[in-house]
Structure formats: structure tokens, C-alpha cells
Write a structure and sequence with these properties.
The complex is a heterodimer of chains A (424) and B (295).
Chain A (H helix, E strand, L loop, with lengths): L2 E7 L5 H7 L3 H14 L4 E6 L3 E7 L9 H12 L3 H5 L3 E4 H12 L11 H15 L5 H20 L9 H13 L7 E5 L3 H13 L3 E5 L3 H11 L2 E3 L4 H7 L2 E4 L10 H11 L4 E5 L16 E5 H17 L1 H23 L1 H25 L5 H30 L5 H10 L5
Parallel strand pairs in A: 5-6, 5-8, 6-7, 8-9, 9-10
Antiparallel strand pairs in A: 1-3, 1-4, 2-3
Chain B lengths: L1 H5 L3 H17 L6 H28 L8 H22 L5 H17 L10 H40 L12 H36 L10 H22 L6 H25 L22
Helix pairs in contact in B: 2-3, 2-5, 3-4, 4-5, 4-6, 6-7, 6-9, 7-8, 7-9, 8-9
Classes of the chains: A alpha/beta (424), B mainly alpha (295).
Amino acid sequence: MNLAFVGGTHRTVPLALRERLAFSTEQATEALRRFRERFPGREGVLLSTCNRVEFYTAGENDAVPPLPEQMVSFLAECRGIDAHVLRGVLSGESDGAAARHLFSVAAGLDSMVLGEPQIVAQVKQAWSLAQQNQTAGPLTGEMFQAAFRTAKRVASETSIGRERLSIPSIAVADFARGVFEHFDDKRVLLIGAGKMAAETLRYLREAGARDVVVVNRSAERAAALATQLGARTGRFESLAAELAAADLVVSTTGATTPIVTPELYSVVEADRGSRPLVVLDLAVPRDFDPRIGDRPGVWLYSIDDLASACAANRRSRQREIPAAMAIVEEETYRFMGDLHHRSTAPVIEQLRAGWSETGETELDRLFRRLPALDESARAEIRQAFDRYAAKLLHSPLASLRKESRSGPPHGLLDALKRLFDLKD
Amino acid sequence: MIEFVSGISVVCFAASYLVALACEVSRLWFRSGLRGAAMVGFMAAGLLAHTLFLVWRGVNEPAVPLSSAFDWYLLAAWVLAGGSLWLTVSNPRTPVGLFMLPLVLGLIGGSQLSSRDPFPQSPATQIWGAIHGGFNLAASVAVAIGAISGLMWLIQAGRLARKQAPLQGFRMPSLEKLSHTCRRTLLTAAWTAAAGFVSGLVLNAVNRQRGLLETVPWNDPVVLRMGGLVAWLVVAALMSRAVRRRPDAARTRAVLSVVSLCVLMISILWGLFGTTRHGVPPVEMAQPTARGALP
């Protein structure tokens, strides 16, 4: 075993325990320092996000990675949690399964929101922290580079992370942006103070919206929200005038009947001219009568409309899972093949050294018997010997590489050692 | 090099555009970065061959360069192909080629049905001929761009009305941008077509005075169809302005833009298959040409 990981995710660890288990950057730095002292010669990378805590370890030759039980105890000790509690919820994998798991994590396939792109940045941060604390090494280096490559391939070769999944982001990116090219010259009207108003406004601000007016039945609440959002307030009594001046409306009131009726909108429509109006009605029950959506120039979206688009995007992501998993498998196979081949390096080195030594001995003997040879002739002969040795070595080395793809080539290595009298 | 350039034929760049169009159509079924690169590559190769072909014809034309109906169609296709390449590179997620390349190929197809003979012109009429052809070219390009914008507007509005998220790799520009383009192209098409028509009348008068070409009668098919096209474009521009304060102004402009292209295509087809005395020298007056008139 060269690679291993121990950890837990949102699926296995309850939120309360996950909060206790999570590491801040300072705590992670301290944990890596302790790891270096406790397990000298081993490599370790700690990944801690709000949804997962995972410790990846690696070691070569005699410095095998710590056992899972040791790592659980180590994590428990670092976070001051009873190790018995953690043993029930943390799990681990080794070698190919560990690599496959990391690749899936980096590609967002193990995330709560499938395909979310933030995780790869978090994995990079974890790797960077391990490098800073000198617990990273060649094995984890290769594994994490392969993980980043996998994440990049999944992102570029599948559309798993492309469609948006939150209602406010879909409302702004897929619908409001379909109507408006620019938002910096548009007026945004926020009616009510529902939960999604602030998040929707955040996306609108990112899109360039500057002119935001908050309207609420309670002037105090409107003022408080406007201060919080950096907007200005309007009077609820002047709703018709505000609607006439607005280009985009986000409505999130708790009203039990529509606050904007077709009759009210008819009054507003006359003052709007040809300017289109986008209405994101995120209230339940709805704030805008759905018949207003039939008026020319009005693009009315209720929360159900946006939720349907959300669900369609989620289904679209799910459909991409097989393609993404195929990439993970391909990269795991490639990485493990390289890793296994790496274990053959000492034997290959001995084999090459042995043949080179024999060749040098024979060349010396030959050159002593043929003293008339000039330097260029000697160089030619030397090159011919080297080529001959390389050609003879080619087949066994190719067989070793091929065998490495399906696991450590112990059988072939033993055979080579016995045939050529190589020492461990 | 000269041998290479002289060997370029219409088939070379038409085939490149066709492959680029096939690449663009394939985006409806699958995504691939390679496909986008291949599409831009074929479009660029086609445009390069197209440019070299026109330059070669311009240099080797014994009469006024690029003055035949054949050249006019290819010039219009060249402008649209250049615009299509530029828009594809600057907006890779928008399927611009899907809309523009069929028009480019249609114009190239139109060129094959047109006369390659340049219109006989004296130095005095060359300027008016260039103005006439230039305005007609600008009007046609404006109509084509407006129609593409109008069609995109209708598709985008349909998606937004059905409350569907956009397809990956098939993102349309915003309604605001498309409507703005429709409005500007309707206006541009109207005045450039009108200027082209008026300059044609002046050219006709100069030709009659010089005796280079026979007078084109008012009931000649070219005069009628060009007059009809200009009338429609002016009406469309006026309608676009008249509805500017109405909530459905954007939809009206989109529909007007698409209809304008239909009118232009009818006009072109009429020109391709009708008989005319437009651009016919006096010696050929007894046998009016059956094809090859400029739109």
C-alpha cells in the first residue's frame, strides 16, 4: 500500500460532528506539523471543507502510510474528539480506490451539489498548504496533479458543471440576461424582503446593476434592507410609479393575494412605452397575477418556472455522470499504471547498471586487444554496445510497463531478479 | 504563388463554408472544443480563398473590377462571411454561423446563376456605377444582418416565453441587443436602398446621354423589383419608427426584418430568372438578357 485516505463527508458525518471535525487554515497547519512529527517520511494532505474532512497519506518503501486506525486517532486527537465517535463515521480507502476517490472529489462528482466548481480550488488550497508545511511529496504530488487534470477534463469534456442550479442564479443568468444586454443602465425594483431577494440582488450586482429601489409595506423594513443592500427606498403607495420606472422587478412579499393585478399593470403599461419588463416573482403565493405575463414586453417568471429550469439543469447534470466517471476511471488507470511502473524503477536501474558494467568490462578487454583503434572507432564501438544493450532491454521493460497497468508487476520483477541475480 | 491563386475556384471557398456550417450544425448535438476550432479554421480558410479569388478577378478583369452581377453576389457573400467569422470568434457560444453561413452559401449559389460579364461603362459612369452597386450591396448586407437578428430575436423570445433555460453552446444574444440591431439595420437598409435606387436613375440618365447603354424603361423588371424593394424597406423603417413607443415594438421590428429578407430574396430570384435591359449595351438590345441583373 502506497496511498491511503481517511475521512468523512456530508453523507456519512452528521452536521454537528462535521462542524467539530472541520479544520480552519491555522488548525490544518498545526495538524500537518503534528503529522510530520508523528509519521516521519510519510506524505500527507489535509482537505477540509464545509462538507468533508479527508486526510490523504502516502509513503514509499519502508515508510508505508499510517494505518486507517492510526489516522482516525490522529484526527480525533487534533480536533479533541473521542476517537470512538469518529471510528463509526469515518472511512478510508487505499491505492487505486483512494486515487479514484480524490479524482471524483476534485471533479465535483462527490459534492453535495453535483459538479460544483469550488471544490477543485479547495483541493488546490489543501495541496498548497501541504507543500508549505512540507508534508507533500512526490507520491501525493503525482496524485494531486492527476486529480487537477481529471477535474479539468471533466469540466471541459462534459457539461456537468455548466448549468446553474440555484433559483436566483438561473433567474439572472438564464432569463434576465436573455432580455437585457446591460444592467448598469437598468432600474431594479425589489418588492418585499423575502429570503431570496438578497441573493438575487447579489447576482444582479455582479451583472452590473447599480440602480436598486426597495419597496416594502413596512417603511422601516424597506429602509433596513436598503441599507443592508446599498440601495435606496421607494414608497409602497407609489408602487405603480415605481413599476413604470423599473426594468427588472424582484418580488418576494408575503402577501396572500397578488399585489400587482392586470388592472394595475394596465395603468403602468401606458407609462412604460416599449421598454421590456422582467419580473422575477419569487413569492409564494405569487405577487404578480400570471395574466400579466401575457402582456407584450413582459417576461414574468414565477418561482415554479425557475424551479422547473433548475430541475431540468439538475437532470442534465445527472446525465453527464457516466461520461465524467469514465474520465475518472481512465485517469485512475493511467495514474496507477504510472505508480506501479514507478515501483519497478530500482530493478530497472540495477538491470541497466549490471549490463552497463558488463559492457564496460568487455569493451576495456576489446580495446586492450586492439590498441590500434583510434578514438572515433572506439566511440563507434561503444555506441554499438549501448544500442545493443538498449535493444535487449527494450522487451523486458515494455513487458514491465504493460504489466504495471493492471497492478504491481511482482511476478515479472521476481523473475527478473532471479534471472539476472539482482538484489533487493 | 500566382499559379496557386489563379487555381482558386468558387468551389474551394464554398466547400470550406459548407464544412464550417456542418460543424456549426453539429453543436446542436454535442459539445467539443475541437469542433469550434475546426469551424473557425474552415471559415477562415474559406474567407482567405474567397478574398484571393476576388482580388484575382479584380486585378485580371479587363473592364471595371468586380462590376458584374457574379462579382456583386460574391462581394456580398464575402462581407457576410467576414462578419460571420468576426462574430463567431468574438461570441463563441452564439451560433452565428448557423444563421449567416446559409445566406453566404445562398449568395454564392446566386452568383453561379449570374452573368460574369462586367457592365460596359465609360469613365464618366464608373463613379455612378460604383455608387449604385455600393449602396445596393450595403442595403442587401443590412437586410441580411437585420433578418438574422430578427430571427434570433424570435427564437430567443420563444425560449424566454416558454421559460426554458438556454441550450448549452446555443446561447442567443439578448433581446435588447438584437432589437437594437434590427432597428438600426432597418433604417440603414431603407436609406442605402433608396440611395442605390436614386443613383441607378442617375446612372441610367448618364448612360442615355452618353449612348453607352440603352435606357432602362420604367417598367423593366429590375426597376420594378428594385422599386418594390425600396418601397418595402422605407415602409418597414417608417413602421419601425411608428411603433417605437409600443410594448410590442421589438417583436414588430424583428418580424419586419425577417420579412425584408423575404422581399429581398424574391427580388433576387426575380432578377435571376426574369428578363431585363438593365446593364445591356445597345448592340445587344435586340436580345434582352435573361439573367445576370444586379438586385
